[in-house]
Write a structure and sequence with these properties.
The structure is a homodimer.
Chain A: E1 6-11, H1 15-26, E2 31-37, H2 40-50, E3 54-57, H3 67-75, E4 82-87, H4 92-100, E5 105-108, H5 113-124, E6 129-130, H6 132-143, H7 151-161, H8 166-173, H9 177-191, H10 196-205
Parallel strand pairs in A: 1-2, 1-3, 3-4, 4-5, 5-6
Helix pairs in contact in A: 2-3, 3-4, 7-9, 7-10, 8-9, 9-10
Chain A binds a DNA duplex (30 and 30 nucleotides) through helix 7 and helix 9.
DNA sequence: CCAGGCATCATCCGATCGGCTATCCGGAGT
DNA sequence: ACTCCGGATAGCCGATCGGATGATGCCTGG
């Protein structure tokens, strides 16, 4: 049958991973790897030239714009491809950011090849494909919405990570110590922790703070 | 020429990565992938059967024993292979642990294929091969008086990041609270901080802890 | 053989933290 | 108009932390 082959572009900064996905995907009759990119700029260029059906997108692209931002960029091109995120992590922030950026699917790199193929085909058909672990996580979050941390609270977290005490933060932010304590309490509640150390760790994990 | 081909076994829990490395390595005249393993047990079995020259070892193998422990195991086999660690991270603790376990080299997965091939050949010849970034990091540590954090102290840091109190850590680690405090004091000194929050932030920044 | 790092434990004490309860103000949304 | 929320402030109190000091046993490397 003269079915149209599904045209795929790979975006990943790891040559090894690109080679792996290419080897696996190209071995499928109905799938074609028509381009590769190692960073955001290359990705936009290659997608623009090849107008693929599906882009396999890694989220961590080394320096420069990450996979989420790149997803946004390629989705803004004329006749945009579906984007299937294929990455190592399933940090909630990552997933949400990617989906928000217009990703149609989210797979983890430890997925068996079969699952990858099915995901590509599904994504090409416009379906939304989520890895089981990711789906589970998302449902959890949907049930209990992640409270957003206010700008002021982020300030506090920054100083917290520098190891400042309440008194010092108060001086730094030109407010009273009571205010700092108040903010901290709110932070604890929002992040689901009850110590400064836990808050810092969670904030970094949630990408509220940059390591 | 009838040079002996270098026989390679891959150990990685990601099918995609195995496929990638296999595709790249098998395309080289002098390199042969003679086996793959997805976890520690498989690795030991496959290495025992195939007696390869070089094992490419991922450090994170999902559940069960990690790459470092697995390295130790395969190095204890009769006529042990050289082990070349090929992983995503370059946490100092990981590097040291792997080297201590008998690894002959340490490469990052974002290395270009050429570098990978050179590393495999070098390792097979018994050379020690370190990725530039890893080598740099090691030298930095060697030059600057970065006190190394002991394994036990890393344990403490891990629990610290989870927001545990001294009492809870003590219970968790089956030691007295006094011991925990002692470790903490040492950690503070080594990391140049004086609070738990600062310790966590610095530990993550220094890649002693993974976010 | 001995220094030195690691891991363990103990006490003391002042400083700090975290929870609780309340109040006040101003802007955004209903 | 009224409510909700972020931000700021206050006081109280018990629990915890961090620093200082000192000691023991083990192992490793010079």
């Amino acid at each position: 049958m003269a079915e149209q082959r599904i045209r795929v572009v790979l975006v990943d900064d790891h040559p090894v991973v690109r080679a792996g996905v290419r080897a696996l995907v190209d071995a499928q009759d109905d799938l074609d790897v028509v381009g590769e990119a190692a960073d955001s700029a290359q990705a936009v260029a290659v997608v623009g030239e090849t107008t693929p059906d599906v882009v396999l997108m890694d989220l961590s692209l080394g320096d420069g714009p990450g996979g989420a931002e790149t997803t946004r960029l390629v989705r803004e091109l004329p006749s945009p491809p579906q984007v299937l995120v294929l990455t190592t992590y399933d940090t909630e922030a990552d997933v949400l950011e990617a989906v928000d950026a217009g990703a149609a699917g989210y797979l983890l790199k430890d997925a068996p090849p079969d699952e990858l193929f099915r995901a590509i085909r599904g994504t090409a058909r416009g379906e939304t494909v989520l890895a089981p672990s990711v789906a589970t996580r998302l449902l959890q979050r949907a049930a209990s919405p992640t409270p957003k941390v206010s700008p002021r609270e982020v300030e506090i977290l920054r100083l917290l990570a520098k190891g400042l005490g309440n008194k010092e933060m108060a001086r730094e932010l030109l407010v009273s110590e009571a205010t700092v304590k108040s903010h901290l309490s709110h932070i604890y509640t929002k992040l689901g922790v009850d110590t400064r150390a836990g808050a810092v760790a969670t904030a970094i994990e949630r990408r509220i703070l940059r390591p």
